[in-house]
Amino acid sequence: MIKQIKDNVFQLSFGKFGSCVYLLKLKDKDNKNILIDTSSKENRQELLLDLEKLKIKLEEISIIILTHNHWDHNGNLELFKKSKIYALKNIGKFKVNGIKVIYTPGHTYDSICLLYKDILFSGDTIFFNGIGRTDLPESQPEKMQESLEKLKKLKYKILCPGHV
Question: Are 114 and 100 in contact (CB under 8 A)?
Fold first, then answer.
């Protein structure tokens, strides 16, 4: 299902378990199309149909940002052969005006959130009704509170979590 968040921001959510995918259609000098997460393989056909409805070809996605490296967020990376992929390991090289990266360990050691204008893309760090799990092998429960404190200081109006 496609939900328009703002004129250039779309949420793609799916029938099967997997993360939401967010599309940012930036109107900068390069007209970048950015995906935040790619959901699970189980949602591949629905993801392809949603992108088609939005008139976005796979090769027109210039950047993919992973909020963390879980199967339900990175399951469709291989579809985007021409996209530059960013995650915690190389996010320092990510430079797009207007998008701020916030390191938020807790759910996983490699969790990040993104602030774009007044929208917070929170991955699995925070949801509408709680916070992400911290009982997984790659979790850092001792760091979750510090990450939540960072997010409390941000000025955003719209929360776009990894799952709805």
Answer: yes
CA 79, CA 144: separation in Å to the nearest integer? 32
CB 125 within 8 A of CB 149: no
DSSP state letter for 141: H
Contact 68, 111 (CB under 8 A): yes
C-alpha dihedral sign at 126, 127, 131, 136: negative
User: Using CA atoms, how far apart are residues 98 and 9, in angstroms rounded to an integer?
Assistant: 13
Task: State the Cα torsion 15-46-60-38 to the nearest 10°.
Answer: 40
What are the backbone dihedrals phi and psi of residue 34, each rounded to the nearest 5 degrees, phi first?
Answer: -115, 135
pTM over 0.90: yes
Domains present along the chain, CATH in parentheses? 2-161 (3.60.15.10)
Q: How confident is the model over 95-119, as pLDDT tens digits?
A: 998 999 999 999 999 999 999 999 9
- Residue 83, beta-bridge partner list: none
